[in-house]
Amino acid sequence: MIKLYWSPRSRSFSGIWLLEESGLPYQRVLTDITTGAQKSPEFLAINPMGKVPALQDGEAALGEAAAICAYVADRYPETRLAPGPADPLRAKYLQWLFFSPACIEPALIQIFTKIDVPTSTAAWGSAAQVFDVLDAALAKGPWILGETFSAADIMIGSGLNFAVRLFKMVPSRPSFDAYIARCVERPAFQRAEKLAAG
């Protein structure tokens, strides 16, 4: 059975939402990051970065939320959480799946710390550019790939929910508000919110 290592009120939300969307049986394994449980040798064998979420599926073990999404969606195609390798949507799916850790998270750090990074050297460009690009993509809706909900929406939706709805680090925009509302309406999102709260 899949084991998801998680901690309340953390990035674990995306892993819980993913597995709730998947319909696959899984076990949540509480990893209390406030006590340093993520630094134990047992946990570091699963994710040497000592972060949650992490996932174990038989002999496969990995960390990083976007990688977990990619793994589950590809390992279990019956979940229909990713376009197949021959589908033209696959390219945009991969782009948006990794947009959250590659662009949204660094942009939020830039906003929070008020770091001035030249756009020419910042891999994410600038926080303004990240959210303008996302705004334009989501305006087409209803999901990041158009009519198809995918694991990329779990990553993008988790990031925007955190940035706009929960912590108000990013000003709301009509496209963000409508997209977050569609995410929140999903039964799997609602179950994940309850589970992730601890």
From TrEMBL:
Domain GST N-terminal, first and last residues per copy: 1-80
InterPro entries membership: Glutathione-S-Trfase_C-like, Glutathione-S-Trfase_C_sf, Glutathione_S-Trfase, Glutathione_S-Trfase_N, Thioredoxin-like_sf
Species of provenance: Bradyrhizobium sediminis
Domain GST C-terminal, chain residue ranges per copy: 86-198
Protein name stated in the entry: Glutathione S-transferase family protein
Superkingdom of this protein's organism: Bacteria
CDD domains recorded: GST_C_8, GST_N_GTT1_like
